[in-house]
Amino acid sequence: LLNDATVGIFRGNQMRLKRACIRKAKISAVAFRKAFCHHKLVELDATGVNADITITDIISGLGSNKWIQQNLQCLVLNSLTLSLEDPYERCFSRLSGLRALSITNVLFYNEDLAEVASLPRLESLDISNTSITDITALLACKDRLKSLTMHHLKCLKMTTTQILDVVRELRHLNHLDISDDKQFTSDIALRLLEQKDILPNLVSLDVSGRKHVTDKAVEAFIQQRPSMQFVGLLATDAGYSEFLTGEGHLKVRL
């Protein structure tokens, strides 16, 4: 188990880390900085580290290394606290090289999304189960975003039409996840499937747990996008037609 004592093996220059996974580690902010922030990291997964270290602590430590600022590509900060002192503190812009960010199960707000969307290289974003009420800020990265996961955005206050207006602009998306836990009656999935002028480059779509999804709508959507490789239909009313047997290049999760 990683803790303040055992993490000391990563201090100094006796080894060179590129990728680090410290999920559920029991380490302090000081120990994290001393053990990891002098390395040339390109990936870091800090999911569920103890409450003594916050997202602000992690990014502050990473941002102290100019090489990491420009070259860290993938950062996973799921189930963490943004900041103990100032929940509205902005810090993501320090990591200008970031291509993929996962920030699920975090009190992550519209202002934080706006900052993240302005990252110049961002291509993949997971904002599932956050406190976001409006995804309009995603328009700032519409020309580079390729993967968007927003499972169970329980605080979203936009209408279905407003959400689709934003998604329609994300023309470079290859993957979209708007799945849910069957708690809401939103028609977002069905309305999305009915659109003909949306997401032309999509290869993966997950609408699991969404109401009103039908075989007819799913089949029409996929036929208009022959490059589709995956569709998630778990806990929906779809997936019973022969077209969705999962044969060929299309994988279907039921």
Automatic annotation (TrEMBL):
This protein's GO CC annotations: Cul2-RING ubiquitin ligase complex
Pfam families: LRR_Zer-1
Coiled coil: none
Record has Repeat as a keyword: yes
Signal peptide: none
Positions of the Zer-1-like leucine-rich repeats region domain: 117-211
Keywords assigned: Leucine-rich repeat, Repeat, Ubl conjugation pathway
ATP-binding in keyword set: no
UniProt family annotation: Belongs to the zyg-11 family.
Protein name per UniProt: Zer-1-like leucine-rich repeats region domain-containing protein
Organism: Balaenoptera physalus (Fin whale)
Lineage: Eukaryota, Metazoa, Chordata, Craniata, Vertebrata
